[in-house]
Amino acid sequence: MDNKISSVDRLVRATAEGQVMAFAVSSKNLVEKARASHNTSPVATAALGRLLSGGVMMGNMLKNDTDKITIQITGDGPLGGVLVTADTKGTVKGYVNNPNAQVLDRADGHLNVGAAIGAGTLSVMKDLGLKDAYNGHVPLYSGEIAEDLTHYFLESEQTPSSVGLGVLVNSKDGTVLRAGGFILQLLPGATDKTIDIIENNLKEFGYVTERLSENDDPSGILELLLKGLNYEITKDIPVSFYCDCDRDRVRRAIALLGDVEVASMIKENKPVELKCQFCNTAYKFSVEDLIEIRKSIENKALMK
Ligand code: ZN
Q: Strand pairing partners for 180?
């Protein structure tokens, strides 16, 4: 791995004055891993990296260890869409529909994520185990992702928030130089004074990737955003891009296609290769494997 990417990605969480919940993340390693797995174009890397960074923080907002969150953006731009799944423990995975998508840069030289995504919808699905699932959908605000999440929190969860996300891509080789983000949320009872302080801090803050430039420490982001408030760091955990796929899971997915579909795959008389959407790992199944899978479908059918 590139020696520029050496530190461990981290997520920090804090509360300030009992009125503000704050999250910040440094994520260049996990975004670089996603880029390398999916071989994404620079604008696709930025889009995926921003949503991975936001998603890993949103995963940390969930209450129970087994809860999961999926955030899906679908748009009419060349990228098609982005999907990210995160848990409470700092692992996140995701993909974009068209990893090769390209658009012209913005006039200010930044990657034009909004144009790559286009107009569409942001959906948030929370898997809260046995209790129930939560689904929220909002129209995309700008397609720039941070603004879309801010909009989502207000519209769908009635929580005034500020979200900042950034991914800096090396223009020479497309690798990830810096990535990270923050989410600030006002808790009920936040005073005007606190809101003023936060708003001023946000005005002075600038870009996430600039703030991470010195030592890649996410707590430095919170120090700037919560300046002037009493705050306490309540969590500091490593975060990573991790996919839990395995051969068995893919085998079960093939079985779910059903007898007719698997029979026609066998008839082709050649091995099939399936790739995990999330991490691009390829799984090969021989004709003999497919015959075994078909038998297992038939056995299940007999037991019914
Ligand atoms: Zn996978």
A: 26, 166
Ligand 1 geometric centre to CA of 118 (Å): 27
Q: Is 160 exposed, middle or buried (0-12, 13-18, 19+ CB in 10 A)?
A: middle
Distance 95 CA to ligand 1 centre (A): 10
Residue 235: count other Cβ atoms within 10 Å of its Cβ: 11
204-229 exposure pattern, b = at least 16 Cβ within 10 A, e = fewer: ebeebbebbeeebbbebbbbebbeeb
Single pTM value for the model: 0.91
Give distance in angstroms: CA of 206 to centre of ligand 1.
35
Report CA(154)–ligand 1 centroid distance (Å). Answer: 32
For residue 149, what pLDDT is reported?
A: 98
- CA 147 to ligand 1 center in whole angstroms: 29
Distances (CA, A) of 55 to 71, 246, 261: 7, 23, 35
Ligand 1 centre from 283 Cα, in Å? 10
Q: Taking a C-beta distance cutoff of 8 angstroms, is the pair 28, 179 a contact? A: yes
Tell me the CA–centroid distance for residue 89 and ligand 1, in Å. 18
C-alpha 37 chain-centroid distance:
14
Question: How many CB atoms are located within 10 Å of the residue 74 CB?
Answer: 18
**Which tens digits make up the pLDDT trace of 207-222?**
999 998 878 899 999 9
Integer Cα distance of 208 and 142 in angstroms: 18
Residue 225 vs residues 17, 182, 192, 208, 254: alpha-carbon distances, Å: 13, 9, 16, 11, 48
131 C-beta neighbours (distance < 10 Å), count: 9
pLDDT at 300: 77
Going from the Cα of 96 to the center of ligand 1, the distance in angstroms, rounded, reads 14
Ligand 1 geometric centre to CA of 42 (Å): 22
